[in-house]
Amino acid sequence: MALDALRAAMPAYAKDLRLNLGSVTDPAHLSEQQLWGTVLACAIASRSAVVQRELGEEARKRLTPEAYTAAKAAAALMTMNNVFYRTRHLLSDPGYGTLRAGLRMNVLGDPGVPKPDFELWALAVSAVNGCGQCLDAHEHELRRAGLDREAVQEAIRVAAVIQAVATTLDAEAALGD
Questions:
Q1: Spatial distance between the Cα atoms of 81 and 101, rounded to a whole number of angstroms
Q2: Active-site residue among 41, 71, 128, 134?
Q3: Per the record, what are the reactions this protein catalyses (predicted)?
Q4: Measured between alpha carbons, how far is 37 from 117 in angstroms, rounded to an integer?
Q5: pLDDT mean across residues, the chain
Q6: Per-residue b or e along 95-110, where b marks 16 or more CB atoms closer than 10 Å to that residue's CB
Q7: How many domains are there within the chain?
Q8: Which domain holds residue 155?
Q9: Which of 1, 18, 121, 140 lies at 20 to 30 Å from 134 by C-alpha?
Q10: What is the dihedral sign for C-alpha 76, 31, 35, 40?
Q11: pLDDT by residue (tens digit) across 9-18?
């Protein structure tokens, strides 16, 4: 099982991450599709080949082909949007906020899964990428769609753990320890 392989690969000093990886993939507030779409989108956002490979394999078993594709689309779209909107927000000239973005985002109209699932995946990728403006926008849409704070926070926990696992495993590989 791919998830077990990742957990086993965690070094002793990252025991907490091994435990957290197990707990965040046993959801209390997310459906199976919401959870594994979040896992896949965050694995992609982590930019770690090993995490993408292992969690992608696990997600493929648990998601429909449409949900698997939609989670990948959420990761792709939000990577673009997070760079754009985070940068525009960080610029000291507020005039950039009045300009048309000019970025195509057609997948938002029909992501192939329920809109709240796609929004959840977009929120989680935005957490990995640190875009406050996107986090606020997606959290607002999720709450408006009826998701509670616990479900939103669960997706953020998944994002945090997957990013930490990716960083740790990539550091171990790079450092040769």
A1: 10
A2: 134
A3: N(6)-[(R)-dihydrolipoyl]-L-lysyl-[lipoyl-carrier protein] + a hydroperoxide = N(6)-[(R)-lipoyl]-L-lysyl-[lipoyl-carrier protein] + an alcohol + H2O
A4: 8
A5: 95
A6: eeeeeeeeeeeeeeee
A7: 1
A8: 2-175
A9: 18
A10: negative
A11: 999 999 999 9
Mean pLDDT of 23-51: 95
Domain at 109, CATH number: 1.20.1290.10
> 39: burial class by Cβ within 10 Å (0-12, 13-18, 19+)?
buried
For this structure, is 131 an active site residue?
yes
Contacts of 170 (CB under 8 A, 6+ apart): 48, 50
How high is the pLDDT of residue 2?
86
- Residue 153 pLDDT class (50, 70, 90 cuts): very high
- Give yes or no for residue 27 having a pLDDT over 90: no
The structure's pTM equals 0.94
Q: What is the C-alpha separation between 66 and 139, in angstroms, rounded? A: 23
134 is catalytic: yes
Catalytic residue among 14, 77, 131, 162: 131
